[in-house]
Amino acid sequence: MASGSMHEEKTKNIQAVKAKGIIGAIVDHSIRIGKEEIVAMDMAVEDVYNQTKQKVTLLVKNSRGKAVQATLSARDLIKKKAQVILGSRSWEETSSVAELGNQYGIPTLSFADPCPSWATERWPFFIQASPSKNLQMKAVAAMVQSWGWRRVNVIYEDTDSAVNGITPHLYDALQEVGAQISPLTALPSFPNASMLCGELAKLKAEQCRVFVVHASLALAERIFQMAKGMKMMEQGYVWITTDSVTSLVHSMDFSMMSSMQGVLGVERYYHDKGRKYQDFYGRFQYEFGLKYPEEKNHEPGISALEAYDAIWSLALAMKEDFSGLSGKIQFSEQRLAPSVNTFRIINVVGRSYLELGIWSDGIGFSVEVGENAKNNVSMEIFGKLFWPGGSLNAPRGWDIATVANALRIGVPNASLIKRFVDVEYDLLTKSYAVSGFSIDFPFDGTYDALVEQVRLKNFDAAVGDDIPIISKRCVDADFTHPHTESGLVLIVAIQSQSNRSWLFLKPFTKAMWFLIASINVYNGFVIWMIERNYCSELKGSPLNQIGTLLWLAFATLFSPQGEKLHSNLSRAATLVRLFVALIISQSYTASLTSMHTVPRLEPKVANIGTLRNSNAVIGYSRKTFVKDYLLNVLHFNPNNIKNFSSFEECADCLKNGRIAGAFLEVPTSKVFLAKYCKSFMTTGPTYKFGGYGYAFPKGSPLVADMDEALLKVFETGTLKDLEDKLTASETCVEDFESDSEILSLSPGSFCVLFLFTAGTSTAALAIYFFHSKYKMEESTPAHKRLWMLILMYCTRSVTSSGSRSSEFYTICNFCLRLSLNVAAPPILRVACLIR
């Protein structure tokens, strides 16, 4: 049936009610809500007649809280010509009555709390009179958000209305404010004592201390009495009730109030300050006291107002100008409900309760209602609240386990760095000693297995300063923020800087050397062009001029005196060149000195590409995710991967060449390099991952508080101090004598220069001898023999005692005379003259 025709038919039925004026009502006479509804409906019928002269007949039946009895009552009302059936607050009663009413075309108006969304589609004559619970659950979530609680336990009565209506809305509302629901606790309407005690004991053993209760008044009374006996109504606990309980808090006796001290409640807001309500309030107290004298409290609740307004609405056939006690009444889309977006917040204290203020959707909390009200997103606007146990300070929403249920913390029993986590077993006491934290359960498996134990709740947390946060582990547990640097680095052995023979070229770059050579050749060319007109030595063969040009180009670079210049132009150019040469030479000297005196170390392996290409063996720390990363991300050969279990083993393998490099997490590498400060270094990039963190079960409220504590440690610099102490506590085990060897200059540092000058001198000497030999071949054979005789005699005289000085003198005189006429080597001529 189309929605338009359905609405028209329902309107006709409502109009029929106006014409005949017979309204049936099904209520539970044994509960407070039913009693209030009966009195309020009778008052409404009387007021309708007094104000409109319209007579309405009200037929009331008792459901006794059972769906079968509600169905029998509905059949009886239909037989008595009731045009509409009102009541039924439980969904079990409502569904049976709605099915029957739909068969006979009788509208059924329900106060069920709440009704499933599909009910109005299944039963066209069904009308929902209770407001949606969505906004009420948002009010509860706003309270949770106000105090920073991040996890909530929900205890609800296991009825269809709660499962289909309350819990989905509450779940969505809490998710919007960043809070989560622990596994829901569903209780039957009448649980036995052992069952109720067992369920509460399970909740007490958990860390979460925030409880939301959505149940009938009878079940809620048993819950709070049992919770009080189990010491769950003391400091640190938070209890919040929905309007199924809060709307009846006015009717509770002292016994129940005493077991609910500090409870916060949410109920629909209604304006109770106007004259109209005050008249209703006074009359209701009088009528209720007469009809039910056994009840100690005669105040009306929201259920009385709903029943009163419902009778008025049906009696007046939905006139637009009607305004009920609880707000504007509307009928559309099969709903008869006030548009409630404001809720009252109460706090149970002593024998009664305090009305703290209100919460409005889109506005927040406020103490008063109206345009001048001050709003705030926090409940702190209400001032000090009274919490369970008499505390005036807001609970943190979670607590560590009690002594009877101590936290079970898992720690790695084979941590690579003992200063992170050190587990020792005492044979005498047969117990474990864990340094740093008071933890009882060392674990010998892998880190993945350790986190898995957290998911299985064999451990309440996994603590260890070297538990890396990776994606697959986040599936099993929640991690705190990383408290260390994240990443994976390659550790390799170091060596002295290679190619030290060419170190003298390092002070300048290739471009700088090329520029120096070019500018000097250019300056030499300029001076040669200017001076060649003044000096005949700058002329001659092309080869001679080229040599002269190069000499002019570089001579002043090493000797500021240079050659004598004749032109002022060449002197000016040379002066500037000498200044530049001075600056360049001084810079070169300083840079080269630094390179020779400061140790220059470099890794034996440049990067992982070199490792892969050379098919080298690499190492990794066992019990980490590193192996998977090396295989799946960096694509190393699985046959070339070797694990190690200690720093000593890793260092020994690197020194002996059994592994070419080792992959360590950044925090671990810092401690390793602090211990082996002179033999190893990091090389290549840092491969990022999540860092180190603490693992907790999914949704644990401890995570957020641990994160907050870690942030404080970061911001105050405490963590930096701890890291410095951790690395400073490692004493370098290297031999300090190696420093002198590195700082001392060896022939290897200058061998290229020595070879260069020796080679130059040798080449010059070779050219000279070849040139001399060529000239000697042009002399007479007698001259050759004479010079050979002289050379042999000189050699012999050098090795003798000097007794033949007279002979040597005679020969020299002969040579001197001969040298005046014969071309002899200049050096020999000079020697003869000296002698």
Question: Could you walk me through the main structural features you see in this protein, from its secondary elements to its overall organization?
Answer:
It is a single chain. The chain has 835 residues and is an alpha/beta fold. Among the domains are: 134-272 and 338-390, Response regulator (Rossmann fold), CATH 3.40.50.2300; 403-479, 3-Layer(aba) Sandwich (D-Maltodextrin-Binding Protein, domain 2), CATH 3.40.190.10; 488-494 and 602-734, 3-Layer(aba) Sandwich (D-Maltodextrin-Binding Protein, domain 2), CATH 3.40.190.10; 500-597, no CATH class; 779-834, no CATH class. Helix content is 46%, strand content 17%. The chain is built from 29 helices and 31 strands. The strands form seven sheets. Strands 6, 7, 8, 9, 10, 11, 15, 16, 17 and 18 form a ten-stranded mixed beta sheet that branches. Strands 25, 26, 27, 28, 29 and 30 form a six-stranded mixed beta sheet that branches. A five-stranded parallel beta sheet has the order 2-1-3-4-5, sandwiched between helices. Helix 2 packs across helix 12 (275-291), helix 3 (67-79) packs parallel to helix 4 and helix 16 (510-531) runs antiparallel to helix 18 (568-597).
